[in-house]
Amino acid sequence: MKLNVFIVIKEIFVLCIALLFAACGSGNKLHEHDNELAKLSLDAFAEVKGQVHREKMDEVGLYEVVNGAETLISKTRVGKNGWYGFAIEPARPGFYTVGGEKTSERIRVYLEAGDRAEVNILEDTLVITNRNTPENLLLARWESIFEPVRRRVDHKDFIFFTYKELFPYYMDFLPKVEEFKREIRSENPFFEELLRQTVEYDVEYFALRILSAVKVDRAVMRGCRPEPGDYPDYYSTLVSKDKLNDSSLLRQPYGVDYLMSYTNLALQKLNRKQTIVDQLEWVPCDLLKAEIVLRHAGWAKTYEKYDEIVTYFSKYLTTESHHRRMDELSAKLYVGNKGAKAADFTYPDRNGKLVSLSDFKGKVVVVDVWATWCGPCRKEIPYLIKLEEEMRGKDVVFIGVSVDEKKDHQAWLDVLDKEGLEGIQLFASGWSQIVKDYKIKGIPRFMVFDRQGKVVTIDSPRPSDPRLKALLDAELEK
Which residues belong to any copy of the Thioredoxin domain (predicted)? Predict the structure, then answer.
């Protein structure tokens, strides 16, 4: 019988520790300590497992809820006996989702270190079983109460259940929500607060989903969506400019989708084109504003449009996560054609001062991407120094960007001194954003930018090739 991988690993690990402990004697304090460390190591993990009873489902995914969206962290194949399983080390207590590739095929579970969760995947639903933590059992109660609403909004079986039926059904459901909220009790204060927020957000999110749900009017057999005049009074209570004043919404797998639907509802009465600025006016929390900005940046079709958005709203993009996602979008969109705006970069010089490519507008800029371990890079250094001397006094700036790893920082400094490399020398700490933006597969790579900060070429001749000097002379004459 094929067992889940994480169960096998755990059992082997525990068995090995147990055998080692027995062989060395129960009185050996050192090995007692090792055994305790092994137990602590296992307790740092959380497990999710279950059985799949769904045809044509060969894989199950586990997703972490991060920044109001679901991020796939692992996939596993379903065993011959129908079981699947995961073992993860939760970064923080919170929601994960488990199930299929589509959002509608997944369900939330609450995990923190040491938790064991079980979710069975049936043909048409997902079930949090009774072999779960108290937190997940309470979450399961809410899921069972709310599932009929979710199905009527999303499921294909209710394609003809239009807003004309949905609105009355939803209004009749709201008292059940209040009843459940009064019954929420948990010995885990963090989870109790999270579940109360979850109930509120679930109810509101699906109320918003009703407004754009794909439905067909059976009488005329065509699409049917409500107009603002059809909305019940309930919708006038949903939006307020002081409502979303913290980032708790981002704990939900649909957090950013909620934000976009919420602001769209708030702006429906404006008789003009709706903008990002209009949306942001309805969201007091800066972390939520950042998610709206990043969603629009992700919709950009060109690097120029992306750059326009993130530059204008840069004051909201402050966290490491914001910058990582900006880098991913930048690398995806940037092409670097001649005449295109340069993809900016910022790295520290040998004294730790941050220097950016954009600092040198008004100058022709030559960028040398290199590393101390790169033989061809080192061979170009004498030619580069000679070229810099020939261009001295002209409007040309030379920037060296080392992609040496952080551990080799001192080696980089030593090479700068040994080779006599002066001027602007930057340290990128590895194969970082400049490499991703400019699609650099090998080094050395030389690039040239004009006085307006636009691309002349992102793959220029090397200093040992006279064509580079000719290219710079031509740019200086423009």
Answer: 336-477
| Predicted confidence (pLDDT) at residue 68 exceeds the cutoff of 80 | yes
CA 144, distance to chain mean position in Å, is 29
Burial of 196 (0-12, 13-18, 19+ CB in 10 A): middle
- 82: closest CA among 107, 58, 102? 58
Query: Which H helix or E strand runs over 323?
Result: helix 320-333
Quote the Cα angle for 76-81-85, to 5°: 30
Question: What are the structure tokens assigned to 3, written together?
Answer: 């067992």
For helices 320-333 and 286-299, the axis angle rounded to 10 degrees is: 10
Q: Roughly what angle, to the nearest 10 degrees, separates helices 29-43 and 5-24?
A: 170
For residue 255, give the nearest of 323, 193, 212, 197 by alpha carbon.
197
- Give alpha helix (H) positions in 64-188: 134-154, 163-183
Take residue 362 and report the two structure tokens written for it.
Answer: 């008004």
The secondary structure element, H or E, covering residue 196 is helix 189-210
Contact 279, 292 (CB under 8 A): yes
Residue 40 DSSP label: H
Q: Which residues pair with 118 in a beta bridge?
A: 49
Each residue's pLDDT tens digit, 400-425: 999 999 999 999 999 999 999 988 99
Interval 157-191: pLDDT, tens: 999 999 999 999 999 999 999 999 999 999 999 99
The interaxial angle of helices 189-210 and 134-154, nearest 10 deg, is 0
Query: Nearest-5° angle of CA 8, CA 10, CA 13?
Result: 105
- Among residues 317, 316, 347, 346, the alpha carbon closest in space to that of 329 is found at 317
Sequence-distant (≥ 6) Cβ neighbours of residue 452 within 8 angstroms: 361
β pairing state of 364-370 and 106-111: unpaired
Alpha carbon separation from 20 to 10, 44, 133 (Å, rounded): 16, 22, 32
Contact in structure between 132 and 118 (CB atoms under 8 Å): yes
**Distance between CA atoms of residues 228 and 284, nearest Å:** 25
Q: Is the preceding omega at residue 175 within 30 degrees of 0, hence cis?
A: no
pLDDT, tens digit, for every residue of 326-350? 999 999 999 999 999 999 999 999 9
The three-state secondary structure class of 341 is strand
When pLDDT is cut at 50, 70 and 90, the band that residue 35 belongs to is low
**For 29-33, 192-196, 273-277, which range has the lowest pLDDT when averaged over its residues?**
29-33
Q: Which residues contact 245 (CB under 8 A, 6 or more apart)?
A: 284, 285
Q: Which two tokens stand for residue 94?
A: 């919170």
Q: How far is CA 366 from CA 142, 341, 362, 397, 452, in A?
A: 61, 15, 13, 6, 13
